[in-house]
Amino acid sequence: MRASTTRRALLGAASAALILVSAPMALAQSAETPTIGVVAKIGGIPWFNAMEAGIREKAAELGVNGFMVGPTSADPALQVRAVEDLIAQGVDVIGVVPNDAQVLEPVLRRAMEAGIHVLTHESPGQQNVDWDFELASAQGFGEAYGQRLAELMGGEGKYAVFVGSLTVPLHNAWADAAIAWIEANEPDMELVGERYGVAEDVDASRRTALDLMRAHPDIKGFLGFGSQGPIGAARAVEERRRSGEVIVLGPFSPGQGRQLVHDGILTGGFMWNPKQAGEVFVTLGTMLARGEEITAGMEIEGLGVVEPDAENRTIIVDQLVEINRETVDDLAALGL
Question: Where does the protein end up (predicted)?
Fold first, then answer.
């Protein structure tokens, strides 16, 4: 890749305010030193900061070029532009945590046609990829939340569900599983609305939770899929002085939500380690760039022994971590 091409790509991205680039300036490639660029959903939030740390550390350990770019908002068009920039740079591997799986399909196809390997995370069933990997099964993750919310609400009352957006496949799969479990097992629980695509924006989540508490004074629970949803909903509950009355659950960054957990406002949830996900992007990316096959029964660092679904191009393992008052400080101490 020529230096002039690199400067044009970086200047164009900066002038358009499209992405926060956390990449080393030297992206020189070779067969021995592959370059792996990962596009996050949104830059600058704790969940993806932890993912970036995993990318950087694993890249240094393996001796490859690995970096993350984070769009300035959860706009699928910005992810498309970021992927286009990486194609222009001629990286060896592109990783993406999609905001909209379908919107990304054409640009990921162009990447593969250019000979670039493609990995995704949080997007099972994604088209035009080598592999999508998941650290939790969608069904198990969603059902765990549905069951826990029902327990905490005593099996009755109104609840609302937030997702990162209505086009994030995995968030909506979790929501589908949670809602289906509740409907099958807790007939006295009532879903308010359908679901709200605000959970990658803490302010939008807070505003939506405040609106819902005004419209439904008897609401008893918020389930937020997206790292900012539980934080925003918990802040709304705190603002309305309804701690202990309204349950807030969901995956979030422990460092960001620690005080809310200890104050009893944010109940907790389940998560996987986003830093580990960043490491897996680099591990799998390096394997693909070096021509290694992913086969059933092999052990991959960060994933364990895998049983890949070759037809659907997915690798799914279950590595759930519970977030509560007993665990949140230790998880935050890991930089999560």
Answer: Periplasm
